[in-house]
Amino acid sequence: MRLRVRTFLPISFAILCFTSGLASGARQENQPQTEKDKQIIEVLRGTRSLWRDPGAIESLNLLYGSADPEHAPAGRLIFVKEDTVGATPKFEVVDEKGVHWKVKLGKEAQSETAATRLLWAMGYFVDQDYYLPEIRVSGLPKLTRGREFIKGDVVHQARLEPLRKPHQMIGSWSWTDTPFTGTREMNGLRIMMALMNNWDLKSDNNSIYAVEGEAPHYVVSDLGATFGKTGGVGFGSRTKSDLEDYAASKFIDDVGAKEVDLTIKSRPFFLLAVDPFHYSKLTSRENVARDIPRTDARWLGGLLGRLSIEQIRDCFRAAGYSSEAVVGFADVVRRRIAELNEL
Hints:
Blueprint: E1 7-8, H1 11-20, H2 35-44, E2 77-83, E3 90-94, E4 100-105, H3 107-121, E5 130-138, E6 150-151, E7 154-162, E8 169-173, H4 184-195, E9 206-209, E10 217-220, H5 243-248, E11 252-255, E12 259-262, H6 276-283, E13 292-293, H7 294-304, H8 309-317, H9 323-341
Parallel strand pairs: 2-5
Antiparallel strand pairs: 1-8, 2-3, 3-4, 4-7, 5-7, 6-7, 8-9, 9-10, 11-12, 12-13
């Protein structure tokens, strides 16, 4: 599979290219650069980051992962607005420290919390997620969606993620257009998507973040469609946060002399082929998990193999799963790690 370079950047940058002479390295003196323009230019110059050495994996605290208990939502939460984008109930709140949070409810709240911790442990950048079985929100109106999780001012099954300032997100990236094509780290990320059964692999779920003092981070910023079934026959065949479906699904599809194909079933219902463009687009997501070099699969398997079973269980404990589900999900993850290490 070939992955080509492209990032989705603001139109203002296209204008900047013509007016500043970036292609030739020159810049007009009377064309000042904004902070956002400088961040975009850094991206194009190759200062990108997808992965960092996770260090002593065996000692990582996966109850929190990249989250910091000292920066968790503080005090009373006040409703700001509802977010109606996407299928999952979401809304924004602000806490007593003035920090704005996006609240996600339902199954994705749990699966995403677990996924961020497991992905972070492997050295990948993730958003900071805090799962709380119950929160109180002042000024909560009657929402369009998610009412089954709300009783009065009490909200159940909530994942809270701090909202980034608008200028910190400088673009999106696509699995078919990435500057990390062919690298071990990129292949490792592709493996992680298959290991966690992430089927929602659209560009809108991938973000480029500007980070002060660091190269921009390439992040899979929506991991809610994980730990279920990636596809099957008919409508409604995809699931998330479903132990039975996750345990029954296939991980390794085919093993060749040098490469391995993993399983992500993204092919839509055949009747949708009447729309060839979207049918092809959805079907192509299966390629994210195909043609993985076996050497890279073993590299990632080695990293994953350093996790203890209790660390893996902590990923799911942090997401508020029942004790039985914690054990079940962790056993499937451990089994898949063993499959990688047998390649």
